[in-house]
Amino acid sequence: MFGKKIPLFSLMGFKVGIDLTWLILAVLITWSLAKGLFPNYFDGYSNATYWWMSVAGALGLFVSIVFHEFCHSLVARRFGMPIKGITLFLFGGVAEMNEEPQSPKAEFLMALMGPVSSAALGGLLALIVFAGRRVDWSGPITGVLTYLVWLNLILAGFNLLPAFPLDGGRVLRSILWKIKGNLRWATRIASGLGSGIGLFFIIIGIMTFIMGGFIGGMWYFLIGMFIRWASQMSYKQLMMRKALGGEPIGRFMKTDPVTIPSSTSVKQLVNDYFYRFHYKMFPVADNGDLIGCVDTKQVKELPKDEWADHTVSEVTQPCSVTNTITPETDAMKVLSQMNKTGNSRLLVTEQNKLVGIVTLKDMLKFLSMKIDLEQE
After folding, report:
1. Contact yes or no for 187/100 (Cβ under 8 A)
2. CB 229 within 8 A of CB 181
3. CATH code, residues 249-374
4. What predicted TM-score, i.e. pTM, was given to this entire model?
5. Ranges of H-type helices in 161-273
6. Using one digit for the tens of pLDDT, what is the confidence trace for 207-225?
7. Where along the chain do its domains lie?
8. Are 69 and 86 within 8 A, CB to CB?
9. Cα angle value 33/18/64 (rounded, 5°)
């Protein structure tokens, strides 16, 4: 889901970071508050005052979303669900889970905690605003706190929409899961509803844009696109976990991989292997012993007119955890490793012996076949 992630801090063991898209959101929120909301609702202040109110409001948004996701994460931890961290991005924030909840109860409580926490934070801020007015607090401070009250209440209400994977969609899925006892069926229903709600937002965005509301229309459209995409992807991810989870990678690997003898010339490597098999990386092995790996990056560091004068052993790099796995490794962990490293081919090794190669293409073929044969 995310691009470049910037780590910020840890909160009770949860790593909090922001995606670069969050910076876009922060700028847009600050600008719209300084030029729109605050001047319209709290008049009589200087331009500089509106800008610092807007910066404070954007920081308050950051804290509110982190608090919302942090409460999700606490409940997830309570039920034994591993959370990798909390990431803020263009459309809010997410507690990154490695796996599905273990029971409908766990999902219901975890999902419901987000909106409840946002509503509670909004209520607490409302009490602070009320107390501040009684003691005649500064108008700009009251303005920022009032904005944060409504922000958290809207955040709670929006997340209760039954659009999976929003909190309301997860609550709906947990109820359907409990009724029928089928997580896959419940996810399909909740995801379908989420996709429909996303389409509704897209239509509202287009209509708003046509009627002259460019900024509002843009946000409705983008939010609808995100909800629709997230709903569809969430169902696909569940299908993938169900199909591949618990499967040892030894089941997918090819046991007769093409290997390169270390004495091969670089020119022969390029002509007889790279150009013939079209792979960017090959294992280097002599007499069954894995020596290392060679890829196009090492070859490109040599001038082309010197390829015939050098052997593969001179450009071979040691294999590492980024491109090797064991036959017992879970298939879902392999997919995660491929995603993180960008390697679509991994060497399967055992006691420094190359026993096979697994490719993303082969895993996806198995996934497609299993879903086709076992779909309900």
Report:
1. no
2. no
3. 3.10.580.10
4. 0.73
5. 167-180, 183-210, 214-244, 266-269
6. 998 888 777 788 889 889 9
7. 5-244, 249-374
8. yes
9. 50
